[in-house]
Design goal:
This protein is α/β, with parallel strands linked by helices and about 220 residues long. It contains 10 helices and 5 strands, in the order E-H-E-H-H-H-H-H-E-H-E-H-H-E-H. Helix content is about 55%, strand content about 10%. It is globular, with a radius of gyration of 17 Å. Bound molecules: adenosine-5'-triphosphate and the ligand Nc1ccn([C@@H]2O[C@H](COP(=O)(O)O)[C@@H](O)[C@H]2O)c(=O)n1.
Length: about 220
């Protein structure tokens, strides 16, 4: 019996991961930040001194990735996002990761996956799809605050430029570009705090989710 899946997509630093974690905690669902899977492949290539565009080696790493060992604290470093988005253009890497992400998505009683292609490719049958956005300036401000609080010295302008560059690459790639699924609910959090975004998502989930029933 398949579990209930909440599919969350959106551009960098839109707040999709924060929202996904709140939903998972509130409903007792398993959460997968699929961005970490692309980041882990990029990290492994960088550590091994392998060029980021070596599709064969990248796909081999992707097909053996241990989803249980993804360490958000180290992989979420700002610089790895750029490397991950270069790795994420390669179809063989995506195919390997999507297969494992789909296995994860079937876990009972339910799952929340966040990324760029969850509603369109990984879980097109998900009963609830959210596309989380905010203006580039708001997203850059949030990410800048996060990076500054961690003691790192990037300027706001550098963060904004990085986010725009990564969003452009993610949206323009041929395989599984960043875009909302046709049946996704748009959630613009530019003027919402984390709690308001969660309340809006909860209304949509509660309208579709009956605990104990299969999806
Ligand atoms: N609605 C919100 N209001 C204010 N701050 C928020 C909101 N949502 C998220 N944040 C903050 O913005 C930053 C980015 O959020 P988060 O990491 O969830 O984004 P993301 O879309 O998952 O990013 P990435 O694509 O890099 O994985 C975090 O510091 C988070 O605490
Ligand atoms: N489903 C996904 C998730 C992520 N990516 C790529 O990984 C990069 C890093 O993701 P974050 O969510 O951690 O920022 C992202 O820029 C994408 O290139 C993806 O393609 N598909």
């Amino acid at each position: 019996m398949a579990g209930f899946t909440v599919a969350i997509d959106g551009p960098a630093a839109s707040g999709k991961g924060t929202l996904a974690r709140h939903i998972a905690e509130s409903y007792g669902f398993h959460h997968l930040d699929t961005g970490l899977t692309y980041r882990a492949v990029a990290r492994a290539l960088l550590d091994a001194g392998v060029p980021l565009d070596d599709e064969r080696q990248a796909a081999a790493i992707a097909s053996q990735l241990d989803f249980g060992g993804l360490d958000r604290a180290t992989l979420s470093a700002h610089g790895i996002g750029e490397a991950a988005s270069r790795v994420a253009v390669m179809p063989q890497v995506r195919a390997a990761l999507v297969k494992a992400q789909q296995r994860f998505a079937a876990r009972p009683p339910g799952t929340v996956l966040d990324g760029r292609d969850i509603g369109t490719v990984v879980c097109p049958q998900a009963p609830v799809k959210l596309f989380v956005t905010a203006t580039p300036e708001v997203r850059a401000r949030r990410r800048y605050d996060e990076i500054s609080a961690a003691g790192n010295g990037l300027s706001y302008d550098a963060v904004l430029a990085d986010l725009k560059k990564r969003d452009a690459r993610d949206s323009a790639r041929t395989d599984s570009p960043l875009r909302p699924a046709e049946d996704a609910h748009l959630l613009d959090t530019s003027e919402m705090d984390i709690e308001a975004a969660f309340r809006a998502a909860k209304r949509l989930i509660d309208a579709a989710y009956a605990p104990g029933a299969s999806s």
